[in-house]
């Protein structure tokens, strides 16, 4: 049987959002959750970390490198 080691979670999803899903995974003793988003909203960061996420990374359109087609430049990851 395969065991999940980590979860990459989108913060905005239909139905249960990523913060609520993270809260459930952590409460159930599940794997570490890293929350990702393209939205630069402080409440998403704080909400994800309060929900028990191991980290959070935002890749907003404002961080797109002008000299490249790469969607965004690497950014530091906030951790709990």
Characterise this structure.
This protein has 2 helices and 4 strands. It is α/β, with parallel strands linked by helices and 80 residues long. The protein has a 4-stranded mixed sheet with strand order 1-2-3-4, covered by helices on one side. Helix 1 packs parallel to helix 2. The longest helix has 10 residues, at 18-27. It is globular and about 35 Å long. It starts with 5 loop residues before the first strand and ends with a strand.
Averaged pLDDT: 78
Oligomer: single chain
Characterize the largest beta sheet: strand count, sense, and whether it forms a barrel. Answer: 4 strands, mixed
β-sheet strand percentage: 15-25%
Number of strands: 4
* H-E string: EHEHEE
Indicate the percent of residues in helices: 10-25%
Radius of gyration of CA atoms, rounded to a whole number: 13 Å
Q: What are the low-pLDDT stretches, counting only 5+ consecutive residues below 50?
A: 63-70
Shape: globular
Q: How would you write the strand order of the largest sheet?
A: 1-2-3-4
Structural class: alpha/beta
Summarize the entry for a quick read.
With 80 residues, this protein is α/β, with parallel strands linked by helices. The chain is built from two helices and four strands. The longest helix has 10 residues.
């Amino acid at each position: 049987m395969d065991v999940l080691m980590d979860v990459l979670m989108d913060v905005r999803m239909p139905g249960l959002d990523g913060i609520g899903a993270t809260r459930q995974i952590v409460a159930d003793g599940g794997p570490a959750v890293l929350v990702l988003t393209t939205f630069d909203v402080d409440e998403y960061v704080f909400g994800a970390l309060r929900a028990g996420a191991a980290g959070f990374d935002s890749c907003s359109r404002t961080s797109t490198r002008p000299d490249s087609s790469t969607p965004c430049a690497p950014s530091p990851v906030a951790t709990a």
